[in-house]
Each structure stands twice: as C-alpha cells, then as structure tokens.
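Data availability (excerpt). The following record was deposited with the supplementary files.
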Amino acid sequence: MAKYIMLSTLTDEGRKTIKMKPERIKEVNKEIEKMGVKVLSQYAVLGPYDFVNIVEAPDNETISRVSIELGSRGTVQLMTLAAIPVDEFTSKLKSS
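Predicted structure:
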C-alpha cells in the first residue's frame, strides 16, 4: 500500500465543529478507514495547516476519492501528497 501525506486546513465551519465536538476527528478517521484508507498517524500542527495526517491507501484513485469526499463537506481543505520512503527513492536512483 502507498503512503500519503494529507495536509488539512479547517474552514470556519470545521473549526466550529471541532470546538463543539472534538471527538469528530476520530469519527472522521473511522469514516476514512471505511473508504479503504488507513490513518497511520495524525498531528495537530501550528502554521498554515491545522493537521498533518500520514495515511496508507491502495492507490491514487482511493486517496483521491477520500480527498473529494472530505473536501465536499465544506469543513476542511486538503492537500494530499504521495510519500515515497527515502530508501525506496534512493534505490530507484541507483538503478537508473
């Protein structure tokens, strides 16, 4: 399974939801897992993003579906990046 970094920024509506119901974060993680994506780790961060999530998905199509589903709710904006382990990356460079 491929790993991805999901950077998320809450909208005003998302901030209201999290303030009123902080457990919503874990509920969304369960929803994501039902769509075929496993949350490996999750961090609340300072700066331009509110959360950094490390997730695992079988393919780009699955992670794209999750991004569109979550983004369509209007509570979060997402940027999803494919993550290549450094050892895998450097071994590909050596073989070319």
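Summary of structural features: The chain has a mean pLDDT of 95.
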